[in-house]
UniProtKB/TrEMBL annotation:
Name of this protein: 1-deoxy-D-xylulose 5-phosphate reductoisomerase
Entry EC no(s): 1.1.1.267
Keywords, comma-separated and alphabetical: Isomerase, Isoprene biosynthesis, Magnesium, Manganese, Metal-binding, NADP, Oxidoreductase
Annotated gene: dxr
Domain 1-deoxy-D-xylulose 5-phosphate reductoisomerase C-terminal residue range list: 144-227
Binding residues annotated for Mn(2+), in chain numbering: 148, 150, 219
Binding site for NADPH: 11-14, 122, 124, 203
Length: 384
């Protein structure tokens, strides 16, 4: 039976890997909408190749180029943030939410409000919206499947079990490319060094987050919303080989772990086929060749981001959305060569200290916290 799918952020790392899997099982899928921020040529080429009905760019300035690239086809085109939400609201069997940043929140909420099945990679949307999103999932009877490899691992380890029997959930972290760097080396880290991740091939923003460990901080908050076992039961362990993607320990002290190659197509496939399974092109896991798995406690002196995230979710209210917004501004500034690598967590902490708002209750509240927190973070940049 053919299933319909829309991919938000189709031109990115997760989007492309999703299309790679779909390309290997073409007869099983019908592509409804594909979206990008700009990358009009790439989006048009994907839309043609996969016979999409609709192609949307978030940046309206890129619409003319998209129209031209798709002239003569019957693929519909649209542009702008509202068009992204309209695309996400079209009924499909599965929506893959793979936009980076809080920019993806509106479209994710549109897909949830339609009561669909959403494979969520866009962690910033869940971190910012928190209960606003989980409440909408419950209200509209939507299904959220976690694409993020750690959360996908936890989701798999929880199948057939009760959340109330969980003693501990452990998120594994690779530690990123700077795991063994000194403070002095970190101060001088360049964007090129930060985006070269040892285990995973990812977009620029998440690669920097991985280097600062803010990725694990965001994932800690993400896990809290997806698997509400209480923050005291949520732990992080550094595991440089990225073979164990996360673990769940039950009250009888039995621990279940999910292992796999560090390739996002494995967790993406788990969502696409859920609750069944599908083939992926990866090699089978050769543990004898891997040889050793090692584990370390996180170092929050050199990498304060996980502490900031934990404090933000403990504080609750607008703090997680503020943390995320400040981090997005700081990462963009670092990638643009405006600030040092170690300024990223400092800027996040300063923004959290300077700005507070009432707990967001609606999508509009979340978006306004996001834009106000960004303005505060941008001010810190100007005064640097
Ligand atoms: P990416 O930068 O490679 O791709 C991002 C996609 O979003 C692109 O299609 C881009 O055009 C689109 N986009 C960017 N800004 C936009 C905007 N303002 N409006 C509309 N669309 C916009 O990012 P990625 O690495 O694929 O990551 C996507 C999401 O998945 C992130 O939230 C990331 O944290 C999460 N994730 C990624 C990986 C990975 O391996 N890449 C793993 C786990 C989770
Ligand atoms: Mg992850």
């Amino acid at each position: 039976m053919t299933r319909s799918i829309s991919i938000l952020g189709a031109t990115g790392s997760v989007g492309e890997q999703t299309l790679d899997l779909i390309g290997r099982n073409r007869e099983e899928w019908r592509v409804e909408a594909l979206t990008a921020n700009c990358s009009a040529q790439k989006l048009a080429q994907m839309a043609r190749e996969f016979g999409a009905k609709l192609a949307v760019v978030g940046d309206e300035n890129c619409l003319p180029e998209l129209r031209e690239a798709l002239a003569g086809t019957d693929i519909e085109t649209a542009g702008g943030p509202a068009a992204l939400c309209e695309a996400a609201a079209r009924p499909v069997d599965m929506t893959v939410a793979a936009i980076v940043g809080c920019a993806g929140l509106g479209p994710v909420m549109a897909a949830i409000e339609r009561g669909g099945t959403v494979a969520l990679a866009n962690k910033e949307a869940l971190v910012s919206a928190g209960e606003v999103m989980t409440a909408a999932v419950a209200k509209h009877g939507a299904t959220l499947l976690p694409v993020d490899s750690e959360h996908n691992a936890i989701f798999q380890c929880l199948q057939g079990h009760r959340l109330s029997d969980v003693a501990r959930i452990t998120l594994t972290a690779s530690g990123g490319p700077f795991r063994e760097w000194t403070q002095e080396q970190l101060d001088a880290a360049t964007p090129e060094q930060a985006v070269a991740h040892p285990n995973w091939d990812m977009g620029a923003k998440i690669s920097v987050d991985s280097a600062t460990m803010m990725n694990k901080g965001l994932e800690y908050i993400e896990a809290h919303h997806l698997f509400p076992v209480g923050l005291e039961r949520l732990k992080i362990v550094v595991h440089p080989q990225s073979v164990i993607h996360s673990m769940v320990e039950y009250r009888d002290r039995s621990t279940l772990a999910q292992l796999g190659p560090s390739d996002m197509r494995v967790p993406i496939a788990s969502c696409l086929a859920w609750p069944a399974r599908m083939d992926t092109p990866m090699e089978t896991l050769d543990l004898a060749e891997i040889g050793e798995l090692s584990f370390f406690a996180p170092d929050e002196t050199r990498f304060p981001a996980t502490r900031l995230a934990r404090e933000a979710i403990e504080a609750g209210g607008a703090a997680p959305a503020t943390l995320n917004a400040a981090n997005e501004v700081a990462v963009a500034a670092f990638l643009a060569g405006q600030i040092a690598f170690t300024r990223i967590p400092v800027m996040v902490e300063q923004t959290l200290n300077r700005y507070s708002a009432a707990a967001p209750r609606t999508l509009e509240d979340v978006l306004s916290v996001d834009s106000e927190a960004r303005a505060h973070a941008a001010e810190l940049l100007e005064n640097a």
